[in-house]
Amino acid sequence: MTPVTEQADHEFLDAARRALRAPAAASAADTAGAADPLDALGWWDLLPELADRDARAAALALFRAQGRELSTSAALGALMAQPFLAATGLSPGSLVAAIGRRSARRGEVLVVVGDVTEAALLIDRPGRGAAVLGRSEVELQPVAIAGQLAVHEVRADLSTWSPTVEEKQAEPARARGRFLGRLALALEMLGAAEGALALAVAHAAAREQFGRPIGSFQAVRHLLAWAQTDCVALESVVATAVRLDAATPPGHDEVVKALAGRNGRRICERALQVLGAIGFTREHSHHHFHSRVLALDSLLGTSTELTHALGARIRETHTDPAVRAAVLLPNPEP
């Protein structure tokens, strides 16, 4: 049986996890002179090569590593801004896309993830184009959010907003940026869910009741098996989308993101059932992984919003966003 994720992808995932752990393991004095993990990985050099399958898989593996290590960077916004670079004349890492999310109280709110203090911001307004704003033109307000995720709300005066990139150019760049962003979010949610599951597996092996580890009880084993099944299913779907890229049907990125939100929550909830009371405490790390899944699910469409939108589109257009068997299998049966 072929592993879902190829060996080369696992090697980059392991390298990314080591690079992300390095600043946390260093002392405060060492951290001041430490290289940025993305620089150490050569991640920025991968962005212009996203059309290449291996470069794309390596670049996106970073997000799975961030979920596992509960690390944060500006990579998501930089990845979504990449399709706009040709029109703006900027280089990778110098432009970060602000991401819209819907607030129940205030409607559409723009946020950025990670440290973007040295980057210009891309403000995209569908139907009107996109504009590049310097840091002096916006205010970044920290958002208190669980999951060890650095998020800032973008506040800017858009009354005099004028597009840097006209809508004709912005439309295809926007679609590409959203496609990449949803795959990245799905992978980071997968990584965070895997982190929660790893805690549950370790707990089931160490915690004893009636003289034996609770992991030997059938009910606990079922919970862990269901959670692992959801992990593998999500990994398979995301890996396929990363491999096929533009060959995926329209809207397939929405399927991937919706599945990530649903499966990520289920994995964390089942891990919490195995952990029991210890998983509810502030001292335990489960809530960091679970909170990250919930926070990331709110970006670029929640699983609920995307599922409803996909269902409505299928009813109206009678199209299927699933990948055809002819694309997936070398010799599909008729």
From TrEMBL:
InterPro entries: AcylCo_DH-like_C, AcylCo_DH/oxidase_C
Domain (Acyl-CoA dehydrogenase/oxidase C-terminal) ranges: 181-304
Superkingdom: Bacteria
Keywords carried by this UniProt record: FAD, Flavoprotein, Oxidoreductase
Keyword presence, Chaperone: no
Entry's Gene Ontology molecular function annotations: acyl-CoA dehydrogenase activity
Signal peptide segment: none
Keyword Flavoprotein: yes
Pfam families: Acyl-CoA_dh_1
Protein name, entry field: Acyl-CoA dehydrogenase
SUPFAM superfamilies, sorted: Acyl-CoA dehydrogenase C-terminal domain-like (SSF47203)
